[in-house]
Amino acid sequence: MRRTALLSVAALAVAILLSGCGRKIPYHIEPKYSAADEQFPRTMGSLLGPPIVAGNKVATLVNGDEIFPAMLEAIRSAKKTVNFETFVYWSGTVGNDFTEALCDRAKAGVNVHVIVDFIGASRIDRGYFRRLKDAGVHLHVYHALKFYDITSAHRVNYRTHRKLLIVDGRVGFTGGVGIADEWRGDAQSPKHWRDTHYRVEGPAVAQLQAAFIDNWMETTGGVLHGEEFFPPLEPAGELPAQVFKSSSEGGSDSMQLMYLLSIAAAKSHVRLATAYFVPDRRTIEALLDARRRGVTVQVLLPGKHIDEKIVRSASRAMWGDLLKGGVEIYEYQPTMYHCKLMIVDDRWVSIGSANLDNRSFRLNDEANLNVLDTTFAAEQIAMFEEDLKRSKRVTYAQWKRRPWHVKLGEGMASMLGPQL
Questions:
Q1: In 3-state terms, what secondary structure has residue 54?
Q2: Which residues of 135-161 are buried (b: 16+ CB within 10 A; e: fewer)?
Q3: What is the CB neighbour count within 10 angstroms for residue 233?
Q4: Which residues form the domain of 14?
Q5: What is the pTM of this model?
Q6: Half-sphere exposure for 201 (CA within 13 Å, toward CB)
Q7: Contacts by 142-145, CB closer than 8 A, 24 or more apart
Q8: CA 376, CA 224: separation in Å to the nearest integer?
């Protein structure tokens, strides 16, 4: 495991030198309408795509105690197909449970396809891979480093960060959770992370399926199609939803564009929750523009309990203008905070795999579920407010009083921002 991790780090270092940081488009978005305006969903569906489709049901699953049983139950109930894509897939109780469930379904004749990320799965027991393949699971590693292929060193900096599970083409899951023991429990201690995942039924499941097959085609060249993957889907609820995906091979800013359009449509409130917050100047300006329009902007981040200390340092170096401009920044205290959530004006919600950093905006393949509904938004706001109660707000005065050596370390970390 240690050797694999070292190889992964070495591969990433080579990739940084060879591939750069992706192109940056200096978007300027003029606020023209609100999220309540009929033009907003037309723009999000037409300019970005795919269309926002009605008739969906989305269940919110909070922390591992709710998330993992629901996902495993869905896998075990599969009759025809299971498509599963994840960034983190590590050894442990959770990793073993998923491996067993996927193997059992494959042995039962279910067509099981799995994509894991080369970097994200570097801490997996390779015995899991053997078990999956021996059971008949179609397993592929995304952008694996191949020492005999120099082009793979370039590709290794572009990861799949998508978190997708689709069963029989009818039930889908997405959100922030990884397949590892860190996500077990109910965020009751620093060893149990705080995260949210979502179970989806209805027409939007076909869009989740398309996001998975997008990476499957890129990885294998195979095209998964037919009724077992895209069955007729009847309305399952009342939610209008869209699965927005970004593909970053060679550089793509589409995920950032989706965030910027959403923020530009805000008239009263923007709530952002993210595990990794390393905003570029365009994102900072978009949030400050919202503040100048009188919009309340709240950003909820991990505190001292964070798996990537350098990311927190790089993030804090960039808070000055935001805090001075009235953006409220909070740090979650009990444990690692891994949620990814945007709520605009109590009606537009974006949830999924994307963080607010360069890696999600330009280097990773990501997938977010967007929902336009006040009732669903109210549920997410209530959850956000509960998390705020367990957080500490950072003021501009506090930020300015950081010791000189902390400022120096944060400044050095921020130089790595494009790769964090």
A1: strand
A2: bbbbbbbbbbbeeeeeebbbbbbbbbb
A3: 18
A4: 2-419
A5: 0.93
A6: 9
A7: 142/115, 142/116, 142/117, 142/118, 142/215, 142/219, 143/117, 143/118, 144/118, 145/7, 145/8, 145/11, 145/118
A8: 32
**Which helix (H) or strand (E) segment is 272 a member of?**
strand 269-273
Q: Both tokens of residue 3?
A: 């050797």
DSSP code of residue 227: T
Q: Helix or strand or coil: residue 33?
A: coil
403 preceded by a cis bond (ω within 30 of 0): no
Report residue 25 as tokens: 């488009």
Of 341, 344, 316, 320, the closest CA to residue 417 belongs to 316
213 close to 172: Cβ distance less than 8 angstroms: no
CATH of the domain at 257: 3.30.870.10
Tokens 């082009």 sit on residue: 151
Q: How far apart are CA 89 and CA 99, in angstroms?
A: 10
d(CA 298, CA 278): 15
Burial of 349 (0-12, 13-18, 19+ CB in 10 A): buried
What is the CA 20 to chain-centroid distance, rounded? 22
Partner residues linked to 166 by β-bridges: 83, 172
Total residue count of the chain as it appears in this document: 420
Token pair of 110, please? 């279910």
The number of domains in the chain is 1
Residue type at 314 in one-letter notation: A
Per-residue pLDDT of the chain (420 residues), as tens digits, is: 333 344 444 444 444 444 445 456 677 789 999 999 999 999 999 999 899 999 999 999 999 999 999 999 999 999 999 999 999 999 999 999 999 999 999 999 999 999 999 999 999 999 999 999 999 999 999 998 877 666 666 677 889 999 999 999 999 999 999 999 999 999 999 999 999 999 999 999 999 999 999 999 999 999 999 999 999 999 999 999 999 999 865 445 899 999 999 999 999 999 999 999 999 999 999 999 999 999 999 999 999 999 999 999 999 999 999 999 999 999 999 999 999 999 999 999 999 999 999 999 989 999 999 999 999 999 999 999 999 999 999 999 999 998 888 888 888 888 876 666
